Structure formats: C-alpha cells, structure tokens
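Q: Got a minute? One more chain.
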Amino acid sequence: MTKLRAAITGVAGYAPDYILNNDELSRMVDTTDEWIMTRIGIRERHILKGEGLASSDMGTEAVKMLLAKTNTKPEEVDLLICATVTPDMMFPATANIISDKCGILNAFSFDMNAACSSFLYALTTGQKFVESGTHKKVIVVGTDKMSSITDYTDRAVCPLFGDASAAVMLEPTIEETGLIDSIFYTNGVGKQYLHMKAGGSLKPASHETVDAKEHFIYQEGQTVFKWAVSKMADVSVEIMEKNNLKPEELAWLVPHQANMRIIDAVANRMGLDKEKVMINIERYGNTTSATIPLCLWEWEPRLRKGDNIILSAFGGGFTWGATYLKWAYDPK
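A: Always. Here it is, folded:
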C-alpha cells in the first residue's frame, strides 16, 4: 500500500509595518544596541500598532496570502490550526476568528498552545489529519502579538519579542517528500521559570494583578537559556541519528529564533555550517509561534524539492522538539 504523507505545498508570512529598533528601545529602558546584539542577536522587531488589532489580524493576512499563492478557495480548506500564545481572547479560539475573516466555512478550526514550540506541535497535529486520508487541505498558522504581553519597562525581557505571523498549507502526497518524523518532549518543571502569572483560572485578573504587572511575560533568563541550549540541541541530534542523517545530507536547519547563542549552539552540536542555518532573528526577534514558518517563507525561493530540513524549537512549559521533512516543491 502506498504511504500517504503530508507535504508543505505553500508558505506565506506577514509582519507589521512598524519597526522598533534597539536605538528606540534604549530610550525606553536602560539598554544599548551593543548589549542586545551581544547577548541576544536582535537589532529590530516588528510591532503591531493600531486600535483593535490582534493576533488574528496578522494571521488573517498570512492565511489570505497563502490561499492566493496556492490557488486555494476558502471553501476548499478542511482544517485550520492556529498556533498562538497571544489569542485575541480566551474564547472563542483565534483559529475560529481567522477562519471567519478569511471566509473559511467548510472547515473546523482550533488553537494550539505549546509556547514557542506551538507551531511544531500544530504542524504535526495537522500532519496526522492529512495522513489519515480524511483531510486534503490543512492550514497551520503561527501568529503572535507578543508586544501585548511584553512589559516595556523590563530591560531583560522587552528586547526579546516581536509580532508576526506565517502560515503553511499541508496536502497529501505519495512522493518521497513531506513530513517524515518528529520527536517531542515536555517537562512541566519549566512552568516556574517562564510563564504569565495572572489571567488564567489559577489567578484571574484583578486590580491587584494588573497593578503588580502580572499579565506580562515572566522569565528567569539564565535557567531558560541553559535548558534551551541543552534540549534543543539534544532533540535535533536525536532526530538526525534516528533517521540516519549526516550533516552533509542536511540542506537546512530551521531553528526557533529566540537567541543567537542558542541557535549557534544547536548548529554546532549538529555539525552544521552556519550557511545551512536559517537565521532572521536580527530583523524580527522572537515572534514565538511564527518564527519557524517565517523562516520558511523568507527562504522559500532558495528551497529545492527533496531538500532535507530539520525544524527545531524550545518553549515554555518546558516544551521542545524537532521535525524532519523533505521539501516538496521547487521555487515557483
């Protein structure tokens, strides 16, 4: 029996027009361009400005572009999964809102939250629906308005994050391309080191939580950094070994864009030259669920059918994982 695989058949991305660079940031908090570039590797980040604009608005832009690129009618979409940690609201799901804004009426849709690993978790979930033979067109969109939960008086956190969205189309193939393997892990001990303290059922919003700035990202940077370097590198090497992949056989590593030092450490452990690593952190910062598909969108003209690619991420929770795929098409 011919094996059915899920292949990425299109990718699109969107970043807001407004750019917050390190010089402007240094006038907001006690920091410098040199400090940020040396420790993180981010020079600028896109910020979604405007009244009433949210993660769904960026996601809608990416999905509409994806539909146009792949010549897909909204009514042809079977499923839409939105990876996000900054939903428009607690409910309904941001995926539902994006579907409505894009005219996607014949699909079901839901959100997935695994922090910065959200896109990979959502991608693998979408893959299973395609491989089952029940769904022929599945959209996975990563979108995050991280500026909405960033405290711009916290010099340790505010340089890290930006806003963006990117989406991929998954379709079935019987060729030797598409998503081949994934490995994922979770360790709940990470909840104490990277989280948002208030706003959930454990600690609902109140005057006290707002005054205490508990609706912003809380991070113990050193601990998160050590875990990320170790686990992202471990799982990336693990998926190479499991699939008998040598460094010279890999075309690209697509790492989550959180910190330049983490990216370098992962590539070094995998034995990869920097030329094989997709890096755009300097221009976008950490856009959480959007970082990996945003890289695929920017590098799409350079990708070739059959390219061996590893996607790798680490996020709060702690969550981490890697996906191995063969690119399914040549530049269009």
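A: The chain has a mean pLDDT of 97.
Q: Perfect, thanks.
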